[in-house]
Design a protein that fits this description.
Length: 132
């Protein structure tokens, strides 16, 4: 007898990819709006040039990815941004992401890298216009 197989989810995989993209982008977008617009909360540190650049990429890239527009290149750039954020802002505080505060940066990095490779899914502007 075979163990429980999760094959019932296979038909939903493309749509779940869209959900992953949408939810990751929406969450990511709020990191930028915090820095630039103090919404949904005020960013606790003063912005320098690097944080301001990251905030602009978070807002613009997050919005584009939320819509699924230019998804692959945007996701690739955002993945790189989060890799830099992890190594510049977190890795120096310890090896384990749970200890150095870098879990979000690490998860965003690899979620966006996957989206860059897999595409935006069927619920996207890219899919609707045949660009994916």
């Amino acid at each position: 007898m075979q163990l429980l197989q999760m094959t019932f989810l296979r038909r939903w995989a493309p749509h779940l990819l869209s959900v992953l993209r949408i939810m990751s982008a929406a969450t990511f977008l709020t990191h930028g709006t915090m820095k630039l617009f103090a919404w949904p909360a005020k960013f606790p540190y003063p912005l320098n040039g690097m944080l301001y650049t990251a905030a602009v990429l978070e807002v613009v890239g997050g919005a584009l990815l939320l819509l699924g527009l230019f998804s692959r290149p945007v996701a690739f750039v955002l993945s790189g941004l989060m890799a830099c954020a992890y190594f510049i802002g977190h890795a120096g505080r310890g090896f384990f992401p749970v200890m150095n505060g870098g879990e979000a940066a690490l998860l965003f990095c690899f979620a966006f890298l996957y989206i860059a490779a897999a595409g935006p899914g069927p619920w996207s502007v890219d899919a609707a216009t045949g660009r994916d």
